[in-house]
Amino acid sequence: MSAGTSKSKKIIVGTVIALVLVALGLLTWLVGMPLIRFVADAERFRAWIDAHALTGRLVYLGLVILQVVIAFIPGEPLEIAGGYAFGAWEGTFLCLLASFAGSMLVFFLVRRYGMKLVSVFFSPEKLQSVRFLKTSTKKDVLFLLIFMIPGTPKDLLCYFAGLTDMKPGQWVLICSFGRLPSLITSTVGGSALGSRSYLFAAIVFAVTIAASIGGLLIYNRICKKHAEKSAGNTQEGQDSHPT
Question: Which of 124, 131, 137, 107 is nearest to 222 (CA)?
Answer without folding.
Answer: 131
